[in-house]
Amino acid sequence: MLITSILMILLLGFALLCVAMQRNFSRVAAPSVHLSKQRLWLLRISGTGLNLLALFVCIFVWGMSRGLVYWFGSATMVVFTLVVILTYRPRLLRWLCR
To answer: Which segments cross the bilayer (predicted)?
Structure first.
């Protein structure tokens, strides 16, 4: 259960960071919609905060060495999943742009 929650936190964090880029935002939302500076920073800070939260949970539960390994392994799986989603089904992340 803990690994699943860490994966979900990482998925949301990296998805927010992906949507914070104008190129990905226009693919997910609409080409004519542009990011405001306030929303851009909100997405970046939220994504980074969620990724750090998952990192701290991994380190707290499994210790420094194993926690870092589990976090990097989980982050690799999540980023690969997001690459596939952004390539083939970018509209699945539309709910992040509202």
So the answer is: 6-21, 41-62, 68-88
